[in-house]
């Protein structure tokens, strides 16, 4: 299980997700938990994880996510990327935040 907490405008929200305890599963769990927390912070918005993948660019590993987002009648696919410097869970959370930050206008 992975729990992610986000702080937005003084309000703390959290999301929790469970996946298989393998590298890819931990990345998916962290990404899904971050999306669940973001949904709580921005009411009326629905966020889903389309996929997570580790890719090498410029000789370094990165975690790439694709997020599906919906609000009212708007729908978008949002890509996000983060360097895999620390844990795969950290990279998944940062990639999700990079995907949704402009769309949600935090």
Describe this structure as you would to a colleague:
The structure is a single chain. The protein contains two helices and five strands; from the N terminus they run ββαβββα. It is α+β, with helices and mostly antiparallel strands. The chain has a three-stranded antiparallel sheet with strand order 3-4-5. A two-stranded antiparallel sheet has the order 1-2. Strand 4 (60-71) and strand 5 (74-83) form a beta hairpin. The termini are far apart.
Number of helices: 2
- The total of beta strands comes to 5
In the predicted model, the low-confidence regions spanning at least 5 consecutive residues are none
What fraction, in percent, of the residue positions are helical?
25-40%
Query: Average pLDDT, to the nearest integer?
Result: 93
In short:
The chain has 106 residues and is an alpha+beta fold. The protein has 2 helices and 5 strands.
Question: Which key features would you list for this structure?
Answer:
alpha+beta; 3-stranded antiparallel beta sheet; 106 residues; single chain; two-stranded antiparallel ribbon
What order do the helices and strands come in, and which of them pair?
Blueprint: E1 2-8, E2 11-17, H1 23-41, E3 45-57, E4 60-71, E5 74-83, H2 88-104
Antiparallel strand pairs: 1-2, 3-4, 4-5
């Amino acid at each position: 299980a992975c729990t992610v907490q986000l702080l937005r405008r003084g309000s703390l929200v959290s999301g929790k997700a469970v996946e298989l305890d393998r590298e890819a599963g931990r990345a998916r769990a962290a990404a899904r938990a971050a999306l669940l927390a973001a949904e709580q912070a921005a009411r009326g918005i629905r966020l889903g994880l389309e996929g997570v993948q580790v890719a090498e660019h410029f000789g370094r590993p990165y975690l790439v996510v694709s997020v599906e987002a919906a609000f009212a009648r708007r729908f978008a696919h949002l890509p996000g990327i983060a360097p895999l410097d620390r844990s795969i869970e950290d990279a998944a959370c940062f990639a999700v935040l990079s995907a949704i930050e402009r769309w949600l206008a935090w």
